[in-house]
Write a structure and sequence with these properties.
This protein has 182 residues and is an alpha+beta fold. It contains four helices and five strands; from the N terminus they run αβαααββββ. Helices cover 28% and strands 28% of the residues.
């Protein structure tokens, strides 16, 4: 089994259990395609155009404000990692926002080791799993243009983490580098 798939399996289990236990409502008051404010820090250190972070599918119950906060926090973790891709492959700072185990897998992952710095704005769609009015999991579906050509595409799996500024950590990934023309 591929390392990314081993890490992704727990998320599928969590989602399946949540659905079985009756967490299947939706928050009809929230617009799932609403574009949220730019994720990131200092505008002078970012790509020329801002990354686009949008709210995706919500499974379960989560109010509009908590949904917006969860999407913004998870989006910041993802876009902060994108900004760190210019660091050397073995630099621990390159995997900012990753759990210890996900960082260990990422350092050994052939696709992630070969990534170049971003070359333009990313598109990130955050799908959330809500339970008891709290976000309990997220999947970030990403597309990031790379400086050496192609795009980084796939999913990052996030878990809530109270010990971080953004409230989320990346615990798994399923990413590929496409060679398609943009």
């Amino acid at each position: 089994m591929a390392p990314a798939r081993r890490v992704a399996a727990p998320l599928a289990t969590v989602i399946g259990l949540a659905l079985i236990t009756g967490c299947s409502g939706s928050d009809s008051s929230a617009d799932p395609d609403r574009v949220l404010p730019e994720a990131g820090g200092d505008a002078s250190a970012q790509a020329p155009a801002p990354d686009t972070v949008v709210a995706g599918t919500l499974t379960g119950m989560l109010g509009e404000r908590r949904r917006a906060d969860a999407v913004a926090g998870a989006g910041r973790v993802v876009t902060t990692w994108f900004a760190a891709l210019g660091a050397p492959a073995q630099d621990p700072g390159r995997y900012v926002g990753f759990t210890r185990r996900a960082r260990e897998l990422a350092v050994r992952d052939r696709v992630l080791r070969a990534l170049s710095a971003p070359d333009g704005p990313a598109t990130v769609r955050i799908d959330l799993l809500g339970r008891d009015a709290h976000a309990v999991g997220a999947t970030a579906r990403v597309r990031l243009p790379l400086a050496r050509g192609g795009d980084l595409v796939g999913s990052l799996y996030l878990t809530p983490h109270a010990g971080t500024a953004d409230g989320w950590r990346i615990f798994g990934f399923d990413l590929t580098r496409s060679q398609e023309a943009r």
